[in-house]
Prior knowledge:
Blueprint: E1 7-12, H1 20-36, E2 38-43, H2 45-48, H3 55-72, E3 80-83, H4 89-98, H5 103-107, H6 110-116, H7 125-139, E4 145-147, H8 153-169, E5 180-182, H9 217-225, H10 245-258, H11 262-269, H12 274-300, H13 303-332
Parallel strand pairs: 1-2, 2-3, 4-5
Helix pairs in contact: 3-12, 4-7, 7-8, 9-12, 10-11, 10-12
Residues 12-13, 15, 21-22, 25-26, 148-149, 151-152, 188-190, 199-203 line the site of adenosine-5'-tetraphosphate.
Amino acid sequence: MEQPRNRVFSGVQPTGNLHLGNYLGAIRNFVPLQQTHECIYCVVDMHAITVWQDPKELASNTREVVAAYIASGIDPSTNVIFNQSKVSAHAELAWILNCVARIGWLNRMTQFKDKAGKDREKASVGLYAYPVLMAADILAYRATHVPVGEDQKQHLELARDTAQKFNNDFDAPDFFPLPEPLIMGPATRVMSLRDGTKKMSKSDPSDLSRITMRDSADDIAKKIRKAQTDPDPLPEAVEGLAGRPGADNLVGIYAALAGLSKADVLARFAGAQFSVFKPALADLAVEKLSPITGEMKRLMADSAYIDGVLAQGADRAHAVADPILGRVKEIIGFI
Length: 335
Ligand code: AQP
């Protein structure tokens, strides 16, 4: 079986509140890869149900992620876009890899600790096994590269360890490639607008903590105006942002949206008060995001089109994953 050299796999959970962190840390980076790689972009609905999802909202959130992919510039005719639950190889391979990965590895996963909170006994088994399903997502396609935000780095390491252990245990050298994380751009970890020490996240109870891909220009301006900062003006150099997480975050967001470095942004705004910088950031965010949110809205009004993209993508995903899963079953001795 020929090993692909340039195959990208990544996914986004349809858990609602798709936000600027998802866009800058992941979705936007998917776009240029379609020029150089064979790309498979998944809506990971099986991951989403590791915490409770309202069934009606799950369907609409799934379509919203597809709309975000396409509106951001991913071409569904040349890339594979599909939802995870349609391709059973993910679940089947996840079970096999559950028997390869070790409990000790999962016990070290910080995302489980964060998401399960204090009452870990009540977290779903799925939330605990999430990283193994993610390994299966990637390895079902023998993907070589995985563009993700920084928060997924630890899960990627577990996917690599799982691939390596499978290859060793079954004496199948190089069967699974060791997937490389692609953590790209200046916004690999966008922080909450209400607390610059916490990641911007879909599940934050405060809507003011994140700019979502549904926000109007007014919403964006209001959230940036209310973003937590400090009374000092912007410094001249990046070192001056140390110990100022709110300021650092806004400068990072400006840099990512403008395609500049943080140093370039500070060269432009050194000495400026936030009363000047925040409106400039709001204007830039509206300029960059409004065309995408507008296009998402248009696409969301045509659910038949989105469902067609998902159906065609699932067929293409099956065509890649099924032979790989078949070979895995042979390797482990299933008849
Ligand atoms: N704040 C962020 N900055 C940069 N990248 C981010 N990503 C998530 N948050 C940030 C990246 O977005 C991709 C899809 O993420 P996901 O749908 O799997 O959700 P998540 O990582 O669990 O993070 P969320 O969106 O904040 O959800 P909750 O609230 O459930 O934790 C991934 O590549 C991720 O790295």
